Structures are given as structure tokens and as C-alpha cells.
Amino acid sequence: MLGGYGGISSIDISGSKAFLKKFLGGKTGTGCALDCGAGIGRITKRLLLPLFKTVDLVDVTKEFLDKARSYLGDDGKRVGNYFCCGLQEFVPETGRYDVIWIQWVIGHLTDDHLVEFLRRCQKALRPNGLIIIKDNVSYEGVVPDEVDSSVCRDLEIVRRLVGQAGLRIVHEEQQMNFPKEIYQVHTLALR
């Protein structure tokens, strides 16, 4: 769901792959990943399935998950679960995931829901697992988006919420080569 910026998909995936490869093959395993706010499975198909043995998808919209089944094609055989649930209610299985990927969806959660979700995600990690947040960040404060009823938080607010969840940022990068007219996108690896 690139909001009219479909042309950035390859840049996005390349940046995400380079970010993830800093951790995979070392201590972080490649057994199972979770795609949060998966939509039709763009990130699952292009980023996660090439790197992990199994991927689970969670999205609040059943129609998107139904489309994901056909969009993923043969690669969909390695999808473990399709969970239709909002992240504010989703409880991932304890100790299942090497990587939990959360992209362009935290703006749909309240601060409290985000903190609680991150706490549940921490319990769902395997040893040396990572939670990855990749999202737009505002320049200052919280900026509401009336079009999709979400918010865009600045980096300091995101960092504070991560800390409240009992997590620490182990690596952080800005996504490069995106159009200048959109908010900066940052990727944070959490443990």
C-alpha cells in the first residue's frame, strides 16, 4: 500500500534487504518471520520469503489476505499462517519468530496499543530475534493524516515508545533515495 508511490517499491525492498542482511546469517535465524500489516503480501513476497523458510502474515483486512494468497503464487506454500486481526489485538505465538517486520502500520496504533503490541512481539521472538519497524517519521511531533485516519510520529517519540515497551534499538537507518516530498522513512531494529 504505497499510496501512489508504487515506483519506490524496488528501492524500499533493496534498502530493507540490505538492512536485514546485517543480522541474518549471524546470530539471527532465518526460520520464521512475521509480516505485520501485510496487506496483499508485497513485503512477504519480495523481502521475507526469499530470506526465511516460513512467513506468517497478519492484517486487519480479510480482502487483502485473500488477495495475498493469489499474489504470492507458489511461494505462498511457505506461508505458515494468515491471521486476520488488528495489531492492537494480535497476540503472536511465544518464541516463534526470528524477525517480526512492522512496516507502514504503526501510525494506525495509539501510543498505548503500540507499546503493548511491541511487548507481545518481544515475547514472540526466538533467541537473537529482532523486531523491525520501518515507517515514516515526521519532522516534529505527531502529524495526523486525515485521509487514512493515521498519525506520523517523529523519531524521538518512536524511540520513547520503544523504550516504554522494554526494548532497545540495536541499529537504525534512514531509507535513502525516496522522493523528497514524502516523509523520511527510518528503519529500526529492536531487541
Summed up:
With 191 residues, the chain is α/β, with parallel strands linked by helices. Helix content is 28%, strand content 30%.
Question: What is the element layout, followed by pairings?
Answer:
Elements: H1 9-21, E1 32-36, H2 42-48, E2 54-59, H3 62-71, E3 79-84, E4 97-103, H4 111-124, E5 125-137, E6 142-145, E7 150-153, H5 155-164, E8 169-174, E9 184-190
User: Can you give the mean pLDDT?
Assistant: 95
Count the E strands: 9
Overall spatial form: globular
- Uncertain runs with pLDDT below 50, 5 residues or more? none
CATH first level: which class? Alpha Beta
Task: Give the strand order of the largest sheet, numbering strands 1, 2, ... along the chain.
Answer: 3-2-1-4-5-9-8
CATH fold-level label: Rossmann fold
The CATH superfamily is identified as Vaccinia Virus protein VP39
Secondary structure tally, helices: 5
